[in-house]
Backbone:
């Protein structure tokens, strides 16, 4: 019987499509299983020997093995079969090579495998638990990214002409006492950065040391320059005046 099965396998292994009809159904694998010719021989031998499936000429069969000429491997699509058939297929593949699927990077995360160019490679430690993941893993669309040689290859889908209306920026200057400026700066400049963030203004503090004959004193005046939209400058001024009032 084994010789007859081997002879049958040899008669179909060089075809582009091998259809299998399992003895029972109930389970579906969304992702195509990718196997080598050597692994497929072992899979076919096991399924036929234990009568889990038979080779069929009908394209309505629920297990289809298609040859992929680009990568010299087979893609096994399972529409309906018993879970034990899935276990036999994956166990046969594991005995020869790593388990591989065609899928997305999200599928690889679900199956805890390695993803590369649409191919998911898995090395499960517990096959029974892994099969549960396989049977519940849905397909996800993948985004194909193609490298370009230069930006001249980028063609816009539609030409968009925008007329930006930039706000008019103004600049205002304040002369404050050194102790007030120190309060505005805060520890490590944190208070000043907070004002900048809230008001969305450029705020520059000029050092009093730039002035000639300057002597350290809390009453020395320092210049603060604020640049931004008018409404934003108003926000900055309110916050600065509040801090200055507390630093008197």
Residues:
């Amino acid at each position: 019987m084994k010789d007859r099965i081997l002879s049958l396998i040899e008669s179909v292994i060089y075809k582009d499509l091998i259809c299998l009809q399992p003895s029972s159904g109930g389970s579906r694998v969304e992702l195509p299983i990718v196997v080598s010719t050597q692994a497929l021989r072992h899979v076919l031998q096991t399924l036929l020997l234990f009568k889990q499936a038979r080779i069929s000429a009908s394209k309505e069969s629920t297990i289809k093995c298609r040859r992929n000429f680009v990568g010299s491997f087979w893609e096994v699509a399972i529409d309906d079969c018993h879970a034990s058939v899935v276990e036999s297929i994956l166990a046969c593949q594991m005995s020869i090579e790593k388990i591989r699927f065609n899928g997305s990077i999200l599928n690889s995360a679900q199956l805890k495998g390695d993803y590369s160019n649409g191919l998911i490679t898995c090395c499960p430690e517990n096959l029974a638990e892994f099969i549960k993941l396989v049977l519940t893993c849905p397909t996800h669309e993948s985004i194909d990214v193609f490298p370009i040689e230069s930006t001249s290859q980028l063609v816009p889908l539609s030409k968009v002409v925008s007329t930006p209306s930039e706000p008019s920026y103004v600049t205002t200057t304040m002369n404050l006492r050194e102790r007030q400026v120190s309060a505005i700066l805060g520890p490590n400049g944190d208070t000043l950065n907070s004002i900048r963030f809230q008001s969305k203004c450029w705020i520059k503090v000029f050092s009093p040391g730039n002035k000639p004959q300057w002597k350290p004193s809390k009453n020395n005046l320092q210049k603060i320059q604020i640049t931004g939209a008018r409404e934003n400058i108003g926000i900055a001024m309110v916050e600065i005046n509040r801090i200055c009032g507390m630093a008197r």
The first helix runs from residue 2 to 12.
